TrEMBL record:
Name recorded for this polypeptide: Protoheme IX farnesyltransferase
Function description: Converts heme B (protoheme IX) to heme O by substitution of the vinyl group on carbon 2 of heme B porphyrin ring with a hydroxyethyl farnesyl side group.
More info: Carbon 2 of the heme B porphyrin ring is defined according to the Fischer nomenclature.
Family: Belongs to the UbiA prenyltransferase family. Protoheme IX farnesyltransferase subfamily.
Position of the signal peptide: none
Keyword Signal: no
Pfam family, one: UbiA
Enzyme Commission no: 2.5.1.141
GO biological process: heme O biosynthetic process
Membrane topology (UniProt): Multi-pass membrane protein
Annotated GO MF terms: protoheme IX farnesyltransferase activity
UniProt organism field: Solirubrobacter pauli
Pathway connected to this protein: Porphyrin-containing compound metabolism; heme O biosynthesis; heme O from protoheme: step 1/1
Catalytic activity: heme b + (2E,6E)-farnesyl diphosphate + H2O = Fe(II)-heme o + diphosphate
């Protein structure tokens, strides 16, 4: 492997910028940033400048966590064909540089959120960074099939950051949004893990399908989807959102439950892929519906 690295050409500026951007896991961040922005408009009427601050600060914090994950998982990435070309295992960025970059992004996030928004939003973003790097990446990912369940809390932090940036506090509605993403994460990621079971098994990552089997994973997806359905309807019951949100939530959950049950019955890759892809749209549409509902009620 060292010989192949030595043969690699020195990356140009364009390649280097692309590689450092890749370390932030930008595709993963798109949905996180959407939940931040939509939550801000549910919480109040933020200025474009404040939204920009929250987006930049949130991107840097989550990007730092992503870079840390790239650094720590470089041995796993090197062993899988799907990830072997990533910047660190491919030898284009050194592990030391990636680690410095990770913490540098988090420091920049904290400063930007503190100055441009408030200290609470900065500390919440820092908490998300800590949870993803220490609790998920260092502690749970390689040790427990509950890694996604517990570690998924990091991905649920962006709504808290957005709410705090607008209001300077964390209200019950913000906690509900946190809980929705928390319970959405397992069925979303377990559907993906069914597609990647062999790779996870080969590198020794104890994802649910590897440890408890595909049948149990599909059963858990159905259970968590039902829990998610109940949770997403509670904000309407308690008056946080109105009829528009309720109608959209019912429709989305009916579709998600249908796909989860179909996945349990069919047990094929096509069903897993459909459930995974729909889960992405599910969360995006649900949070946009919150904004539409909140703006019409205001």
């Amino acid at each position: 492997m060292e010989a192949s690295r030595a043969a690699l050409p020195v990356p140009g500026v364009k390649q280097l910028v692309s590689d450092y951007f890749t370390l932030t896991k930008p595709k993963v961040q798109l949905l996180l940033l959407l939940t931040t922005i939509t939550t801000m408009y549910v919480a109040g009427d933020p200025s474009i400048g404040l939204v920009a601050v929250a987006v930049i600060g949130g991107f840097l914090s989550a990007g730092g966590a992503g870079a840390f994950n790239h650094w720590y998982d470089r041995d796993i990435d090197e062993a899988m064909a799907r990830t072997a070309s990533r910047p660190i295992p491919a030898g284009r960025i050194s592990p030391r540089a990636a680690l410095i970059y990770a913490f540098g992004l988090q420091v920049a996030s904290f400063v930007i959120l503190t100055v441009g928004a408030n200290v609470l939003s900065a500390f919440l973003a820092l908490a998300g960074f800590f949870w993803y790097t220490v609790v998920y990446t260092l502690w749970l990912k390689r040790r427990s099939p509950q890694n996604i369940v517990i570690g998924g809390a990091a991905g649920a932090v962006p709504p808290l950051v957005g709410w705090a940036a607008v209001t300077g506090s964390v209200a019950p509605t913000a906690l509900y949004l946190f809980a929705i993403i928390f319970y959405w994460t397992p069925p979303h990621f377990w559907a993906l893990s069914l597609l990647m079971k062999n790779e996870y098994e080969r590198v020794g990552v104890p994802m649910m399908p590897v440890v408890h089997g595909e049948k149990e994973t599909r059963r858990q997806i159905v259970l968590y989807t039902l829990l998610l359905t109940l949770l997403t309807l509670l904000p309407f019951v308690f008056g946080f959102f109105g009829a528009i949100y309720a109608v959209v939530a019912v429709g989305l959950n009916a579709a998600f439950i249908t796909l989860a049950i179909r996945l349990q019955r069919n047990a094929d890759r096509a069903s897993a892929l459909r459930a995974y892809l729909f889960s992405l749209s599910y969360l995006a549409i649900l949070f946009v519906a919150m904004v539409v509902d909140a703006q019409l009620l205001s």
